[in-house]
């Protein structure tokens, strides 16, 4: 669902990855501090509890920024995003808040790449607390006053083949910043 937005796509992905574009902030994320839009790319088996692609997806934020976002700001917004996303849910009246903590850098010579685990209550499919791995990159564009943050997310170990599929999803060159 694109919520009526006429926005250029951020990501290049295989046609099997379902796409959604959403304006930010959205009503279920009242505590996020970013403005812009997001693009989501869902693996075809992302909602199948027994699928190797379960909860595997890419998420990209194209947001207004006067400088690259500090890791703590990205972390806080991601926590608030998932906290809002999972409420209300049909599994429980109360559940733990999401826990996200990024570490940096994950590769030599790429200070804007970071990774971490995120723990949150799955209010969509299982009704249980789950842990997902996050690999993320930030691309800042001074000329446009925007930053793009691309998250690749999956509960699978980083050695699992789903990560090669996620890595094939790239930021389009049309967006300011390098690939």
What is the fold's blueprint, element by element?
Layout: E1 11-12, E2 18-24, E3 36-42, E4 57-64, H1 71-85, E5 99-100, E6 113-121, E7 129-141, E8 146-154, H2 162-167, E9 170-171
Antiparallel strand pairs: 1-9, 2-3, 3-4, 4-8, 5-6, 6-7, 7-8
Structural class, from helix and strand content? Answer: mainly beta
Q: How big a fraction of the residues is strand?
A: 25-35%
Low-confidence stretches: 1-5
- Please, how many helices? 2
User: Count the strands?
Assistant: 9
Mean pLDDT: 86
How would you spell out the order of helices and strands? EEEEHEEEEHE
Provide an overview of this structure.
The longest helix is centred in the middle third of the chain and has 15 residues, at 71-85. With 179 residues, the protein is mainly β. It has two helices and nine strands; from the N terminus they run ββββαββββαβ. The strands form two sheets. A seven-stranded antiparallel beta sheet has the order 2-3-4-8-7-6-5. β6 (113-121) and β7 form a beta hairpin. Residues 1-5 have low confidence and may be disordered.
Give a summary of the structure in a few sentences.
The chain has helices spanning 71-85, 162-167, and strands at residues 11-12, 18-24, 36-42, 57-64, 99-100, 113-121, 129-141, 146-154, 170-171.
Characteristic terms for this protein:
two-stranded antiparallel ribbon; globular; 2 helices; seven-stranded antiparallel sheet; 179 residues; 9 strands
């Amino acid at each position: 669902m694109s919520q009526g937005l006429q926005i250029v796509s951020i990501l290049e992905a295989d046609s099997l990855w379902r796409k959604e574009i959403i304006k930010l902030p959205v009503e279920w994320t009242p505590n996020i501090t970013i403005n812009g839009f997001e693009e989501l790319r869902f693996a075809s088996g992302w909602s199948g509890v027994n699928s190797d692609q379960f909860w595997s997806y890419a998420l990209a934020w194209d947001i207004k920024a006067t400088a690259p976002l500090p890791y703590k700001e990205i972390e806080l917004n991601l926590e608030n995003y998932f906290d809002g996303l999972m409420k209300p849910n049909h599994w429980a009246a109360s559940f733990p808040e999401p826990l996200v903590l990024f570490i940096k850098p994950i590769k030599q010579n790429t200070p804007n790449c970071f990774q971490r685990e995120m723990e949150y209550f799955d209010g969509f499919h299982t009704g249980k607390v789950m842990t997902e791995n996050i690999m993320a990159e930030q691309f800042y564009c001074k000329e446009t006053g925007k930053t793009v943050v691309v998250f690749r997310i999956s509960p699978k170990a980083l050695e699992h083949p789903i990560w090669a599929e996620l890595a094939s999803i790239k930021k389009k060159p049309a967006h300011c910043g390098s690939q």
